[in-house]
Design brief:
16 helices; mainly alpha
Length: 322
């Protein structure tokens, strides 16, 4: 996009930012008694247009679709859109491999996708037509299928695909688009930290951890892997040394608080984009902010349906961009 195109697109985003949920909105939703009340609060704000407003998942999926359509409408670079879709694409790949290799049907395990939907992915994996996948997915799709067929080890399959997703995201860190580069690097670094913490808590082997972590520029992942293999105290020391003391404090409080910290840290990288008018930054930041609030709304509605207390839900809700 040209600078003039960005200026027009950003002006459109600025108007939409006013309708984003803020932290006060989230606390209001947390304080409601039922998921139905939360859903009503959202639909009164325009969520779920064209969907069954009584069906929470239909409303949330409608918002996710609308969010992606906005990127396309504003003519955001297709590569940026592709990178943003990696988590859903690779999740769907895991689901497709398991459906094909186990002979079971799990349609609910798939995200909706205009790029690679459930039927297309299952057909590709079943017929070994890996060349029809994006280049960055071809090798891991073939490898994951072979692993699943020979070992039936779903966890090993997941690790391979998750690592490939991280590697593809890290490649985006070399992008000439400054914001995409910063976002991709932060995403990989925080995901590596999350993997290391989980591995230390569950006492995984060094080989397992090394296979799961992706290289990044923020720190030496080999040192992180060694720390995780040694135990959670060594992970604490590593994180504090590299400027992530807040992560250590969050882990010590609870794992759900730590997961919230991870998402909030990534969200913090978006905040500086509010004053940028000549790049994709504000547009992509808005997209990610909307994804964040949709995910948070889903957490609250699900938690209400399962009778969780306000304090437990508050541990899980994310910081808003609005």
């Amino acid at each position: 996009m040209r600078d003039a195109d960005y200026i027009y697109a950003v002006a459109s985003i600025r108007a939409k930012e006013k309708s984003l949920l803020n932290d006060s909105d989230i606390q209001t939703m947390v304080g409601m008694k039922t998921g139905e009340q939360v859903l009503s609060y959202l639909t009164e704000r325009g969520w779920g247009e064209g969907a069954n407003v009584k069906d929470a998942e239909a409303v949330l999926e409608a918002e996710e679709t609308k969010n992606m359509e906005l990127l396309e409408k504003l003519h955001v670079d297709p590569y940026i859109i592709e990178v943003l879709s990696y988590p859903e694409l690779y999740h769907n790949l895991k689901a497709a491999v398991k459906v094909v290799c186990t002979g079971t049907e799990h349609s609910e395990a798939f995200y909706d996708s205009d790029v690679l939907d459930e039927k297309m992915l299952v057909t590709i994996i079943r017929d070994n037509e890996f060349e029809k996948l994006p280049e960055h997915m071809q090798a891991v799709a073939k490898d994951a299928k072979e692993v699943m067929l020979s070992t039936r080890d779903g966890q090993k399959c997941d690790i391979k695909i998750d690592r490939a997703c991280l590697d593809a995201t890290e490649l985006a860190a070399a992008s000439k688009d400054k914001f995409l580069s910063e976002y991709a690097e932060t995403k990989v670094a925080i995901t590596d930290i999350k993997i290391a913490v989980r591995a230390a808590i569950t006492h995984r082997s060094l080989e397992f951890i090394q296979s799961a972590l992706a290289p990044c520029k923020s720190f030496d992942v080999e040192l992180l892997a060694n720390a995780a293999a040694s135990g959670i105290e060594d992970v604490y020391a590593f994180l504090e040394k590299h400027g992530f003391k807040d992560a250590v404090d969050a882990i010590k409080e609870s794992y759900s608080v730590f997961e919230r910290w991870c998402d909030d840290y990534i969200m913090s990288t978006l905040m500086g984009q509010k004053t940028n008018i000549q790049s994709s930054g504000p547009i992509v930041a808005y997209y990610l902010a909307r994804q964040n609030e949709i995910r948070t709304a889903r957490i609250i509605i699900t938690a209400k349906a399962n009778g969780f207390s306000e304090s437990v839900i508050s541990e899980r809700v994310r910081k808003m961009y609005g």
